Amino acid sequence: MLKIQVKTFSELTTQNLYDLLQLRSEVFVVEQDCVYQDMDGKDEKALHVLGYKDDKLIGYSRIFKPGDYFDEASIGRVVVAKNQRDYNYGYAIMNASAEAIKKHFNETTIKISAQKYLKKFYSNLGFIQIGEEYLEDGIPHIAMIKA
After folding, report:
1. Which of 110, 119, 123, 126 has the highest CB neighbour count under 10 A?
2. What is the mean pLDDT of residues 94-117?
3. Which of 53, 55, 79, 62 is nearest to 9 (CA)?
4. CATH class of 3-107
């Protein structure tokens, strides 16, 4: 069971920030062998969804209100630690993210930029592909929306 916290950038402790940047780097840079600028200046605008198991951050996403990333509300940087992926924590993070968007932004339409290989995962959550595949940081992505 994940313990979920939702925090603004200013509410993040130094430890929260270190943990989330470490997790994002561990997966998106090291595991996926992708050199890209993770600290993109958008974390300050985002709400951060932190998933803890036994006081260790193992899942994360950041969410945006409409207009801050896409025209629609959005979820990004969805990540679960590699050794925790057999427990459906990705669904818990995504569901908590959608709930936070509804609670904080009063929105139910959500757009994401998904890595193509995760299409089935996001489809299981009600997201539908819109448009064609594109490369983002050298990785195939698709835009998806859930209304």
Report:
1. 110
2. 97
3. 62
4. alpha beta
Per domain, the residue ranges of the chain are 3-107
Helices (H) and strands (E) in the chain, counts: 3, 7
- Rounded Cα distance between 46 and 35, Å, is 22
| pTM check: above 0.90 | yes
Structure tokens at 106: 């009063």
Q: Are 86 and 60 in contact (CB under 8 A)?
A: no
91 vs 35, higher pLDDT: 91
Are 46 and 61 in contact, with CB atoms under 8 Å apart? Answer: no
Per-residue pLDDT reduced to its tens digit, 21-64: 999 999 999 999 888 889 999 999 999 999 999 999 999 999 99
Average pLDDT, rounded, for the chain: 96
d(CA 106, CA 36): 32
